[in-house]
Each structure stands twice: as structure tokens, then as C-alpha cells.
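Kindly inspect the following:
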Amino acid sequence: MPPNEGLVHPKEYDWRDSNVELVNSELDHRVKYQSATTEPAWNNGKIGTEPGLFIWRIEDFEVVPWPKEKYSQFHEGDSYIVLNSVKAAPKQSDNIEDGEGEKDKLIHDIFFWLGSHTTQDEAGTAAYKTVELDEFLHGAATQHREIQSAPSDAFSALFPRVKILRGGVRSGFTHVDVNETPQHIDTLLRIFKHPSPAAGRDAILVHEVEPTWKSLDEGDVFVLDRGDKIFVWQGKKCSPMEKMKAAQVVNDLTLAKHVDVEVLSQNESRSKIVVDHLGGQDVNPLETTFTAEQPISSRSSQDREKKLFRLSDAEGQLSFNLVKEGKAINREDLDGNDVFLLDSGKGIWVWEGHAASRAEKKMWLRVLQRYVAQQEDAASLSFAKVVQGNEGRGFWTAVEA
């Protein structure tokens, strides 16, 4: 079914026949903005006025500031909102049509990050509050949906040293594991490289994995915290950067408690002590090939060809058509009178022109949902919405890559 099927039939989707007439109207935005001004998380005097990185976790339907010392840590049982505000470079602040720019303009990117085991109420609250934060910023932010298993390049650029931990805060509807792991339960951390084109290099990630020998991979480094002792297990094909990151992780762990640390290479016969502790008593580490799937998707952007679509009602009815595909796509293909969908291969972007009609602005989400439903593996892609004149580096990189 084409993503625009049904959009071209005025009788079925005529906004004047329903209570959604006010969606994207001036009144609609005023009401949402007023609601946003009552949210304590956005009213700290810095949001929207100062550049910086801000993170909140959803806790029992509330937006709670995340401690700065934990800014690179996320629990797979939680949902988070991340705001990154930076001063616009001249090219970023330029309007695509008339070249208007503001000297001290801020470019905002809002990410709502969904852990693989987050609850539906936490995810829903994060999505709703992301829209509210965008209203607080007067609709100038780029909104991103991030899922744990397939982070976007833009998110990876912010957190090239991210640590994913098990557990999460207690949910409003459903109780999950608490976020503090009891000391008597083994913790196994995997340190591995993950491609991050936006960061210009591989990101080194830390991900808590199941404490079993089957989680080991000879290309990575693992930190086993037994409570009374910490082991570092270096796969025979691991990189120097992974070893360095493991040393940093161990340093962080030993700041809170003083325990012995032992570093073992897979090529050493003594490395079997780690394998044995993880249940592999019958496994010989000198003769075994350890392979485990990475907890983060490494799908290449070359899996699908880049495509640009236009959502327009210029001819009296809404239509959704392919404009261009392949590497020939550039910023000149965008028209401020319409809404465009860019499938970059690794993520999906919706670009909203300043002069787009209310119907086009209202229907972009439905079109996006139908488009994603038709594409194989698209459900695991990140997606983002950006407004003309407030594009960040991530969007232009996706357009011109």
C-alpha cells in the first residue's frame, strides 16, 4: 500500500470534519507552549538560552534530571530525553531560501532514547515530553527517536563512550529491575568498537551483557566484576583503544570500592579462570573461537539506497512522490513550500518547509508511519523531524553524504 494512500481523498481526511482542525494551528501551539512552561525540567533558566548538553530520565511519568556524572550511562530498562543545544555555525543558521541568519542562534537536537526493555508508559511519556520540549523551544528543535539497538550517527557523536547497563527505574505501571545491581550478582561489561561516521571514527561502547561465557568475543575486551575481585579479559583480537577504555572502566569501578584487579589475555592459560566463572568449565579458551553478536546493530548505510520524497498539496490534494534517489540528492532539492521525507539508508528524516500547508504539517507523521511499515528493517531505524532554518549538522550530513 503506498504511504500516501488515503491522503488524496478529501472526504476521508478532511480536517474540517473532525476535532483535529486546530492541529498545528496558532492556538494549538499556544496551548502546548503554556503547558510546557509549567514543566520544572524545562524551567531551570538554561534550557533554550544556553548551549549545552542536558539529560533527563522518565521516572513514574516525571521528567527527572540525570546526574551529570552519569551522562554517558543509560539503563536498558529506561527511557531518556536528551537535549543538545549548540551555537549555530554560519551555514547552519542560514535560511535555505533567503540566507537569513542570527549571530547567536542556537540549534537544538532533542533525542528520546528508548532502552530495549523500557516500558510502554515510559516510552510514551518520553515521546510526549519531547514534543512538549520542542514547543518550549518554539518549534525550533530537531526531534529524534533513538532505540538502544541501533543508535543514529548523531546520537553516537554525542556519546562515543556510552555505557549501557541492565535494569531500570521502577515504572508507573510495571515494575522492572531496580537500577542498582546488588554486589553479589556478577556484572559483565563488554567494551567494543562500533562504527560512528558522525564522530569521524569508531565509537568505543560499554554494554552490560549476560554474565555467561557465551557473551565473550575474541575481538573485544570484557570486565567481570565479581564483587570481591575484578577481572579484565582481553580477547586475542581486541584493539588498543578497547584496552584503554577497559582500564578507564576499571578505574571508575575501583573508585567506589577497593578490590583486586587482574588483567588476563585470552592467549594466557590462566584466562580460563574467567571462562570457568562464567559457566564454561568444559571450554578451553586457547582452542575456542569466541564470537558473540554485538548488542548494537552495525547495519551499513549502504544497505538501502538513499531516497527523497515530497509531501505536497499544491495541486489541491495531498500526494507523496519520489523526488530523487541516490547520491545526486542535495539541499537544492528541498522546497520551503512542502514537507520532505529523506530515507538516508541509516535513518529517516522529515524536513518541514516554513511555507508548508497545515495539512502537510499535520499528515507527516501518518505518512512516515506508513512508509516505515513498508520498508524491511525500517522499524529499527532512528527517525528525526527538522524545521527549515533550524537544521543541524546531522541533517545536512545525511542529505549530502
Notes: The chain is about 20% helix and 25% strand. The domain at 1-22+299-401 is CATH 3.40.20.10 (Severin). The longest strand covers residues 187-196.
